[in-house]
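hey can u check if this looks right to u? its 392 residues, i copy pasted from the old doc so theres a chance i mangled smth
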Amino acid sequence: MLDIQALRAATPGCARITHFNHASCSLPSHETLAIIKAHLDREALHGPSEMGVAVAADIQQTRASAATLLGADATEIALTGSGSQGWGLAFAAMPPLRAGDRVLVGMHEWGGNLATLHRAAERAGARVEVVPNDEAGAFSVEALAGMLDERVRLVALTWCPATNGVVNDAAAVGRITRGADIPAFVDAGQAIGQLPVDVEAIGCDVLKGAGRKALRGPRGTALLYIRKSFLERLEPPYLDVLSAPYGPHGVIPRDDARRFETSENPFALQLGLGAAIRATLQLGLPAIRATIDRQATTLRAALAAIPGVAVHDVGAVRSSIVSFTVEGHAPASVRDRLALEAITVGAIAEAYTPLDMQARGLPAIVRASVSYLTTDAEIERLVSAIRRISKD
């Protein structure tokens, strides 16, 4: 069991807002904030470049902690500025698509990934094809198996979508792609920090996730995992004096995932990310997952009981995200009214998961996402506010 009150006491934002927007950005701890601020002070007093050299070992410890979190080796971890940046760099490094090639995605694929894939496919004369959902509304592993052939160049899976609570079976997808020797990219932006992650069990070649969500790290940080055996198949779209120094023997790219990093880094943020990852590891993902699942289940049931409120989550296994609409009220209006009471939620447009939301006729939803910081009293406060809005 987690000591929620102690964790909340160590989180300054908990005293000011009732936060249900953890799927966008969670609330950092005093410790994470202090580490970031302390390094910025050192940079101001002693020189940013000099302090970057001084904390090189600490930054490497952030990578090592991330590797522990993901069940990877530290050489398979790159630190990037955002999940989209990492995913895009890895995709751009793959051999270019050719006419007739196929890329398979799920109904829940993140809109940014879809945009990248479609632009590349259009230029090459390739196709992006959609794997349908199963009866529960999750990515259909059975359908994927039936769609594979020698023209498939990539399978992309968003593990936990941004606009409904489903948790797709990433490991089952990985077993199929590994068996067929087809590269698999997993977008774990909403999974890292709230679900146990083991890249070996998942069997993916690339996995990315943001530091600002369930990990409670700072914005501007993300993790990019690249399987070591897959790295040799990737040619980054640009190089740097860190990723591939130019010397008398030509250009020699690094033989680890840091070939996707550059020499310019936000060291203060990366130190904060390391602290957030270590705090997550100390709490333990099983306890975090159990707490989040309990609170999300409670919130879904309470919202579904309100007349005029529709909960739109699907799937047999669900995440921290609770998506809903209030009859007669646009999601942005609901968000803004709640903000007046210091209650934070997201109003999420279909661009986040366009295939799924268009298929379900949802131009936007209200997204309330819980954390292990979420209390029963906070849930009741949100539900009471939604009940009042629904009556207007």
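The chain has two domains: 4-28+284-390, 31-282.
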